[in-house]
């Protein structure tokens, strides 16, 4: 935990410097696409945002002044697979966004979907030393949290307080400045594979970019796609990307669980490619134009030209019915949704007061997916797209850009994390996620 912990503290300072300068880049490094947005921060609240980090530090007004999207290369399952290819894709996206914004960008905040995220629930408490709660009291509470054995070569990506209790009052959003004697906190910790994060940071360094923050795609997609009532009462965001499907459970406007499934839209494309014996590019085109997961009677009569340039006249003039195409796509989509249901059951999602489910990401645009997901998951499902950000370019308003848009909110409205406070080094035993979820059920 210590190397990335120190890096996170350093990146907080870099972010403050970037906000003070007024320009920062957002980079969504996905398996199928690499998206870059350039933000300009201005307005009277900008000076407040650089004085601290957290809900009480103020919010920054920003505007998207440049954007670019390119096909991802060298990324597999949301992780860097080929350093050289990924570096070229990042340089291409960032340079195109800089040209669109007509400004040079040195600092970037990045999100990614891989590295096998795993959630842990922690609890800590301590006596308040002064007349009111201050940052040192919060640091001692967070320092007393039960740190789980996250495993070798695992690092902490997010560590956010999700609830505060002061004496007999609970559900506090921010206890600073309040009067009390005993302060307690529930904290959500998200651990990932350390080498995957270090490789990503090294790749950004090779691109001459300074990383000012790093986030999980599942987390930022939930920030962008869930409405305020869903974040407050309890909801899950399912971000179906190209190589992975991310899950994030929110309650009281905080993420309390996150997970990633190493299957996504590219696996559906691969099944089409193998089933119809066509190249991946053609399979992606057919999936986009004709794909679906629910067959109707007229789909037998809708013939899709496959085409080809093999020189074999019969082979290159093949056609396939839409029903056959759906028959190839549906089993893989069902497999992904069945795995999602298993992960939600393991997390205790059925214990939350509200059980809304929102589908987002590029893979969620398959026609009929929301109805199939509702049947498999046993709950009402809606399709989500980025919310709460005005002035986005039209190309970045679709569900495929939920992570990128969420990352802009992550940059402009930072939440308190473990490394924002001076924390004593003492650590104790673990506390399971189910115990944390039970606490939410009993107290909220």
From TrEMBL:
<dbReference type="GO" id="GO:0043093">
    <property type="term" value="P:FtsZ-dependent cytokinesis"/>
</dbReference>
<dbReference type="InterPro" id="IPR020823">
    <property type="entry name" value="Cell_div_FtsA"/>
</dbReference>
<dbReference type="GO" id="GO:0032153">
    <property type="term" value="C:cell division site"/>
</dbReference>
<dbReference type="InterPro" id="IPR003494">
    <property type="entry name" value="SHS2_FtsA"/>
</dbReference>
<keyword id="KW-0132">Cell division</keyword>
<keyword id="KW-0131">Cell cycle</keyword>
<comment type="subunit">
    <text>Self-interacts. Interacts with FtsZ.</text>
</comment>
<dbReference type="InterPro" id="IPR043129">
    <property type="entry name" value="ATPase_NBD"/>
</dbReference>
<dbReference type="InterPro" id="IPR050696">
    <property type="entry name" value="FtsA/MreB"/>
</dbReference>
<feature type="domain" description="SHS2">
    <location>
        <begin position="24"/>
        <end position="225"/>
    </location>
</feature>
<keyword id="KW-0472">Membrane</keyword>
<protein>
    <recommendedName>
        <fullName>Cell division protein FtsA</fullName>
    </recommendedName>
</protein>
<dbReference type="GO" id="GO:0009898">
    <property type="term" value="C:cytoplasmic side of plasma membrane"/>
</dbReference>
<keyword id="KW-1003">Cell membrane</keyword>
<dbReference type="Pfam" id="PF14450">
    <property type="entry name" value="FtsA"/>
</dbReference>
<comment type="function">
    <text>Cell division protein that is involved in the assembly of the Z ring. May serve as a membrane anchor for the Z ring.</text>
</comment>
<dbReference type="Pfam" id="PF02491">
    <property type="entry name" value="SHS2_FTSA"/>
</dbReference>
<comment type="similarity">
    <text>Belongs to the FtsA/MreB family.</text>
</comment>
